[in-house]
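Need residues for this backbone.
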């Protein structure tokens, strides 16, 4: 029993330490070794429970910030705790399935299993990112987001390619360090192929980093305003005039040098609702006319008896150039699933149902004819297929308007930033993030975080401020942008081949 608990805790602890706020990312390459040792010789059912418990401990710590919705969104504590537990239990199922699969496929040759099990992990992560609206956070591939040479392969495979590599290394270490007896020749050859693959990925990364270090591309200058508006104030009508005062004051301070081509406010930064506060909108319009600068801002809009979480570009002339309505909505945050069938939920979860937008809106880059940027709102920058759609539609720059204040001052904003890094690399587009409470920054197409907004003590979250940065406008489409998750589909094919090999093996034994 002590060995079992120790190995489960060891794997969970390594996973926790590999991710924010600790970010000791090399630990992710050994994190699965203890639990893989533990499930050797176990039945598929017991392996499921063992690895599911490992995942559960990991998720309970990494997602504890969900509970803070009780204070920021006035949701009953019991409900926010229940939602946190249910989400962690659901996500841990994928770890359990991997453990069961590892036992099931243990009868196929070592060499085949070495490459097939990482593919099985990728398939599980892919399903998790799509099923029930999707939750792709905390995939293993996100852990080494700061090690740029390794993550450049994402422009071919997406983040799943790094997840594949992480599991592959864990399997190799487990087999070579802890396996009793000499590994068979097939496994040794397969491992050598794996080592060559790792070196090829790192060399590819270095080449791609050098290719994107040139400054010959066209650039624009953006100014990000981070107002740090408390959630309880944000939706209180009596606070709206004061919030507008703070936004306009910060913006006026930010544009003293007059270099900016575009000013950016965060998600739902306009205080109130457009249809209820036309006076506030006119005040903002007058301000823009006075400073002669375009403004991109988040706002709740309504039409045809539907409401939208929108981004709007206001030109120096006071005219609205374009509006984007958020397309990928967050369950329980922007709509209640099954509201018609479970009406009592509306009484305990005070969430209005937003409607999804329909268009991949492109905004013109001010002063750059023929150049466009796209706004992704809230957690849309964590969803690879959403961001890829904008780039395929011809955007040269990505802008994320977000508000992580719902989860208070935790490591959640860092996890959010971690996923955004891969959207920049996958599509080779710079990504500008304007957040209400942080982290506001500029991410280069290499995944390098070039500029970060912070106060005089270096604190990046729950501080008010502004920053101005030069941002590149990039052309072209990567392999990933063109073909999407082809690598994941190949992994699915590999898992199918492994399953077929198992069936053939079992049939030969029976006969």
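Answer:
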């Amino acid at each position: 029993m002590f060995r079992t608990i120790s190995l489960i805790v060891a794997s969970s602890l390594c996973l926790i330490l590999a991710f924010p706020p600790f970010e000791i990312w090399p630990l992710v390459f050994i994190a699965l070794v203890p639990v893989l040792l533990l499930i050797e010789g176990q039945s598929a059912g017991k392996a499921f429970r063992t690895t599911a418990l490992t995942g559960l401990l990991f998720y309970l710590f990494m997602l504890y910030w969900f509970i803070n919705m009780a204070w920021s969104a006035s949701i009953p504590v019991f409900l926010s705790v229940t939602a946190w537990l249910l989400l962690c239990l659901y996500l841990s199922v994928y770890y359990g399935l991997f453990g069961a699969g590892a036992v099931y496929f243990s009868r196929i040759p070592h060499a085949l299993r070495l490459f097939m099990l990482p593919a099985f992990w990728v398939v599980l992560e892919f399903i998790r990112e799509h099923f029930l609206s999707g939750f792709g956070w905390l995939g293993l591939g996100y852990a080494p987001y700061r090690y740029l040479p390794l993550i450049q392969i994402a422009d071919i495979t997406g983040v799943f390619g790094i997840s594949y590599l992480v599991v592959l290394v864990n399997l190799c270490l487990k087999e070579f360090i802890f396996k009793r007896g000499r590994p068979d020749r097939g496994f040794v050859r397969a491992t050598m192929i794996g080592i060559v693959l790792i070196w090829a990925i790192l060399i590819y990364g270095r080449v791609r980093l050098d290719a994107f270090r040139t400054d010959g591309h066209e650039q624009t200058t953006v100014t990000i305003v981070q107002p740090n508006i408390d959630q309880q104030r944000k939706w209180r009508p009596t606070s709206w005039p004061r919030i507008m005062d703070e936004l306009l004051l910060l913006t006026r301070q930010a544009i003293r040098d007059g270099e900016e081509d575009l000013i950016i406010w965060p998600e739902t930064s306009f205080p109130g609702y457009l249809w209820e506060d036309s006076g506030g909108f006119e005040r903002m319009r007058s301000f823009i006319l006075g400073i002669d600068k375009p403004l991109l801002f988040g706002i709740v809009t309504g039409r045809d008896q539907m409401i939208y979480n929108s981004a709007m570009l206001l030109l120096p002339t006071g005219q609205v150039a374009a509006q984007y309505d958020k397309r990928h909505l967050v369950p329980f945050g922007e709509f209640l699933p099954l509201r018609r069938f479970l009406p009592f939920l509306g009484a305990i979860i005070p969430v209005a149902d937003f409607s999804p937008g329909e268009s991949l809106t492109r905004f013109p880059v001010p002063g750059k004819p023929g150049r466009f940027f796209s706004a992704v709102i809230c957690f849309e920058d964590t969803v690879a297929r959403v961001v890829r759609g904008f780039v395929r539609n011809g955007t040269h720059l990505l802008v994320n308007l977000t508000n992580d204040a719902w989860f208070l001052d935790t490591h959640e904003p860092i996890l959010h930033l971690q996923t955004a890094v891969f959207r920049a690399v996958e599509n080779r587009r710079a990504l500008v993030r304007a957040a209400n409470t942080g982290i506001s920054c500029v991410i280069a197409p290499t995944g390098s975080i070039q500029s970060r907004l912070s106060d005089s003590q270096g604190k990046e979250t729950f501080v008010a401020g502004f920053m101005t940065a030069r941002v590149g406008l990039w052309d072209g489409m990567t392999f990933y942008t063109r073909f999407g998750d082809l690598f994941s589909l190949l992994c699915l094919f590999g898992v199918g081949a492994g399953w077929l090999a198992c069936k053939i093996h079992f049939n030969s034994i029976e006969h």
